[in-house]
Design a protein that fits this description.
- This protein is of the alpha/beta class.
- It is built from 29 helices and 20 strands.
- The protein binds acetoacetyl-coenzyme A.
- Acetoacetyl-coenzyme A binds near residues 108, 136 and 284.
């Protein structure tokens, strides 16, 4: 064995040199790794070995470029291109042995080996698009040469991690190795290459699959059209597509590479990728809780109870059934329970690629009941009942009497005081908020709310469980609406005020849609139903909502709300709503005025940032980036704008936000009162990002 450097060593297995990389946590291509690979391949080439295997230790093959080094001054070490050239041009067969993930630069390295061997559990992909980038080390030119243009388009614009068996079928993996026997299989494959004198395949030289797409611009046009909605607002998918177009339409691999380099540079220096790279780390940072260390013991969750089989309870239950955890769902009435279970089944059946046996397997994990005593053997019980404090207290008193010792009692409340709920039990340390977002089986966010007495192990369990069920968790403290809804209420208030000053609902919605939200607040209300919490008997036409609901305009479900809807549920501005709004304005004695798009955006977003600072100064969020994680995953904030706090820095930082808030305060009063922390940051010349340190 030769130690090449701190992260690479060269071993020998008969005639085969085995270059072993070990750079935890994910063998990312840091300068040290690149240098180790370069020197390692050089040493292997100079030795009398007849073939070379590249393999990694730890949890994974190379998971990509080292994102922490992006934007940092380059160190004078071997570049990735140097490493790749060394591999591709090697006169001895080079075999990449893949376990865990081969992602981004990691796959781009593997594509420069002459052959790839992988265990079935491995996954391969080019996920740069998720960082607002494209694969900048030849991946855009090599991948379509292996898997064809259509598959490359799909893989690169989705960033999907392709399972090794599928990659094998696509030709991306040459041989599947038995699980746990990767090194042996890769060495055997290398020996076979030598014995059979297999060709040294250089992907860059094989244009057959590109030829198939030459002269067919419709492949790209149709792909763009089919994905227009998904790609809306993002720069990176289009740049990825252009690279594949270049692979097809240029005359050489080198020309394609030059185009890749040009487009990569544009993305790398742009604001979107900066936001998306920031977000990558924000999401991981959100799991770190200063007083709950990573090694905090967690409670085992083998069975879950969910109280309520409505939209929320059903969606919550699906998350656990999806990962094989049995769920007891309790409802008060038999018909509500049956309806709830039937809806879950329908959701499974309707999900893309649903297989009947999968649906049955998941449904078999769900047990309906009308008796809360059936929660007695559950390790975690989540209540999703009507949002009223007296009801929640009653539920928790009952759960306290039923749940086994050590069970976690969670509430899905979106606003209520968890300490007050916990206080009715004899075990406040076991009580926590697990705030799912609707539809709970789809939305990524889980706001975990820690009460004053919530146990650290309970917090750690909820955070880890979130990851297991595929959610992104952020920790909040107890306050009205926690992080997300507390900030949302600022935007909602301004939206309502704006339409009473002269903007129309569709103006507000358009501005926020163009900003990048999937829909604006009024379209959202129509979707959710205007009559949530509205009581016909008490309605006296005093608010716009009263007037709309009284006219049976209760949202999409009644074919009309703020908007009119046609039979395909396409929204159109409504003359009824416009008149109703104008009537209110006239009645109030005010004059409607023309409101600019700029004002709509600023009044929607600046107060949210301001509220974010109040949340931080009260200690209800740990760091500014946690707030961004909440908004990206729970409210459709466009990830290419990082989140409200990141965006605050993008538009000029605390000083600019303060200036705007003061200007609005002077005109419109207390709703725009700057948070003390905003004043402080501005006075100290700091950024919002400084709150992440
Ligand atoms: N660079 C630097 N650090 C990275 C990293 C990378 N590419 N990928 C992961 N990490 C770090 C994480 O920040 C995390 O650090 P902490 O423990 O300090 O928080 C640690 O590695 C473990 O990561 P996860 O918590 O995400 O672990 P996981 O097991 O859930 O997932 C993973 C592993 C699938 C590899 C996931 O980390 C991931 O998707 N990583 C990013 C992969 C990627 O996007 N690669 C492309 C990079 S860009 C590129 O390669 C450009 C190019 O063309 C040259």
């Amino acid at each position: 064995m030769t130690e090449i450097n701190a992260v690479t060593k060269l071993e020998r297995d008969g005639d085969v040199a085995v270059l072993v990389l070990n750079s935890p946590p994910v063998n990312a291509l840091s300068s040290n790794v690149r240098q180790g690979l370069y020197d390692g391949f050089k040493a292997a080439g100079a030795s009398d070995a007849k073939a070379i295997v590249l393999i990694c230790e730890g949890r994974t093959f190379i998971a990509g470029a080292d994102i922490t080094e992006f934007g940092a001054p380059g160190k004078p070490t071997a570049s990735l291109l140097d490493v790749q050239a060394m591999m591709e041009d090697s006169p001895k067969p080079v075999i990449a042995a893949i376990h865990g993930t081969a992602l981004g630069g990691g796959l781009e390295v593997a594509l420069c080996a002459h052959y790839r061997v992988a265990v079935p559990s491995a996954r391969l992909g080019l996920p740069e698009v998720a960082l607002g980038l494209l694969p900048g080390a030849g991946g855009t030119q090599r991948l379509p040469r292996v898997v064809g243009v259509e598959t490359a388009l799909e893989m690169m614009t989705s960033g999907r991690h392709v399972p090794a068996p599928e990659a094998h079928k696509l030709g991306l993996v040459d041989e599947l190795a038995p699980e746990g026997k990767l090194r042996e299989a890769a060495v055997a494959f290398a020996n076979k290459c030598v014995a059979e004198n297999k060709p040294l395949v250089k992907i860059s030289e094989n244009n057959t699959k590109l030829q198939a797409a030459k002269g067919k611009p419709e492949i790209f046009a149709e792909f763009r059209k089919a994905n227009a909605r998904k790609f809306r607002g993002f720069d990176a998918p289009e740049a990825n597509i252009k690279c594949i177009e270049a692979a097809v339409n240029t005359n050489s691999f080198e020309e394609g590479l030059a185009e890749e380099r040009r487009l990569f540079g544009g993305l790398m220096s742009g604001a979107q990728s900066a936001a998306q790279r920031y977000y990558f780390f924000a999401e991981r940072q959100a799991n770190k809780i200063p007083d709950v260390p990573d090694d905090t013991p967690i409670r085992e969750i083998k069975k879950v109870g969910v109280l309520g089989a409505g939209t929320m309870g059903g969606g919550i239950s699906m998350n656990f059934a999806n990962i094989g955890i049995p769920v007891t769902i309790v409802e008060m009435q038999k018909d509500a329970l049956d309806r709830g279970l039937a809806t879950i089944r329908k959701n499974y059946e309707r999900s893309r690629g649903a297989k009947p046996e999968e649906t049955e397997k998941r449904m078999s994990l769900l047990t309906g009941s009308l008796d809360m005593n059936d929660f007695a053997d559950c390790d975690l019980i989540i209540e999703a009942v009507y949002e009223r404090m007296d009801i929640k207290k009653d539920v928790f008193k009952k759960l306290d009497g039923i749940a086994k010792p050590g069970a976690i009692l969670a509430t899905n409340t979106s606003y209520l005081n968890i300490d007050e709920i916990a206080a009715v039990t004899k075990r406040p340390q076991d009580v926590i908020g697990m705030h799912f977002f609707s539809p709970a089986n789809v939305m990524k966010l889980l706001e975990v709310v820690r009460g004053e007495k919530t146990g650290k192990d309970v917090i750690a369990t909820a955070m880890k469980l979130a990851k297991k069920i595929g959610k992104v968790a952020a920790l909040a403290g107890v306050c009205h609406g926690f992080i997300g809804n507390r900030m949302l209420s600022q935007r909602q208030r301004e939206a309502q005020k704006l339409i009473m000053e002269g903007a129309m609902p569709w103006d507000v919605d358009r501005v926020l849609y163009d900003f990048g939200f999937p829909m604006g607040p009024f379209a959202m209300s129509d979707l959710a139903g205007l009559d949530i919490g509205w009581v016909k008997e008490n309605s006296k036409g005093e608010t716009l909502r009263d007037v709309l609901c009284e006219a049976d305009r209760r949202g999409q479900k009644t074919g009309a709300g703020y908007y009119d809807y046609d039979e395909n549920r396409v929204a159109k501005p409504s003359a009824f709503t416009e008149k109703a709004i104008n009537d209110f304005i006239v009645k109030s004695g005010a004059n409607p005025r023309k409101i600019s798009d700029e004002e709509i955006l600023e009044r929607s977003i600046y107060p949210m940032i301001n509220e974010g600072l109040k949340i931080l100064e009260e200690g209800k969020a740990i760091r500014a980036s946690d707030i961004d994680v909440v908004w990206v995953n729970g409210y459709g904030w466009p990830v290419y704008r990082g989140g409200p706090m990141f965006y605050g820095d993008l538009i000029g930082g605390p000083a600019k936000v303060l200036e705007k808030m003061k200007a609005f305060e002077a005109k419109m009063g207390d709703d725009f009162k700057p948070a003390p922390l905003l004043e402080k940051l501005a006075a100290e010349g700091k950024k919002f990002a400084d709150l992440n340190k």
